[in-house]
Design brief:
Blueprint (H helix, E strand, L loop, with lengths): L1 H30 L8 H11 L3 E3 L7 H6 L3 H8 L7 E5 H4 L4 H15 L5 E6 L2 E2 L5
Parallel strand pairs: 1-2, 2-3
Antiparallel strand pairs: 3-4
Length: 135
């Protein structure tokens, strides 16, 4: 029985070691991913194509640049230093009352701070009518 318990403990130890090795392999594999070979300028251009608008136009706030900045430290630095990703803001005043005003304010503050020196493009809508139609 003692020998069986020792062998079972060895099996558990080996399985734990195997899991650690698999995690290391996954980390190393991500370092070799082809996207890591793209120059920051190219990746920044791709980001600009994806992040066309930061929106509070539905009941959810959607900031694609924020999503990209959560991928890894490199993408976060690139997103935060690319002002054009943050310069286009869309707010639907009709659904604004359904949103947490602090989240909308946080989105606006972040976009304004990170868009500098790019000009801000602010698109406001109300109900089904575009406010720009009245200006």
């Amino acid at each position: 029985d003692d020998e069986i318990q020792k062998l079972e403990a060895d099996i558990v130890s080996l399985r734990n070691q195997q899991q650690r090795i698999y995690r290391q392999i996954d980390r190393y594999r991500s370092l070799l991913a082809p996207i890591r070979k793209l120059p920051p300028e190219v990746l920044g251009h791709i980001f600009c194509l994806i992040c066309t608008e930061n929106s509070a136009a539905t009941t959810e706030i959607d900031c694609p640049a924020v999503h990209l900045s959560h991928v890894c430290a490199g993408w976060r630095d690139l997103a935060r230093t690319t002002p054009s990703l943050w310069s286009c803001i869309s707010i639907d005043l009709r659904v604004y009352s359904q949103q947490d005003p602090f989240r909308v304010e946080s989105m606006l503050t972040t976009c304004l701070a990170l868009s500098n020196p790019s000009p801000i493009i602010l698109h406001l809508t109300m109900s089904e009518v575009d406010i720009a139609d009245f200006i």
